[in-house]
Specification:
The protein is an alpha+beta fold. The protein contains four helices and six strands; from the N terminus they run βαβααβαβββ. The chain has a four-stranded mixed beta sheet with strand order 4-2-5-6, with helices on one face. A two-stranded antiparallel ribbon has the order 1-3.
Length: 118
């Protein structure tokens, strides 16, 4: 589990590095507020790209075994009154991060925040 204050793209890479795995994120599974969509359209931003590379979200991202998701999600909802949202899956491809949009490859033009990048 990790907070995504540096953006999904940066923070999933931290999970991948520490777990020696890869990840596939399906952008069509992300949810957006109407305010975010409106400002993205007004500014000409790609809202998918902004959602995965922007920071300051203050949400948590976690990985769970697929066969445990239902029970964990149910317990989480019971405790906090919010649902967990599946946005992708962990893969065995070490350090390979794939973004997809409706199953098709999606290439990012921007990247999330990296504290150690010069």
């Amino acid at each position: 589990m990790i907070d995504i204050s540096d953006g999904i793209e940066s923070d999933i890479k931290r999970i991948m590095e520490s777990s020696q795995c890869g990840a596939e994120i399906e952008l069509s599974l992300l949810t957006f507020s109407s305010s975010f969509l409106n400002i993205s359209r007004q500014q000409g931003w790609n809202y998918y790209e902004m959602a995965v590379t922007g920071g300051e979200d203050y949400c948590l991202m976690l990985t769970v075994a697929p066969d445990s998701f239902k029970s964990i999600s149910s317990a989480y909802y019971k405790e906090f009154g919010n649902s967990l949202t599946v946005i992708g899956k962990i893969t065995e491809k070490k350090k390979v991060l794939d973004f997809k949009l409706k199953g098709q490859p999606f290439n990012l033009q921007k990247h999330g925040y990296d504290h150690f990048r010069l």
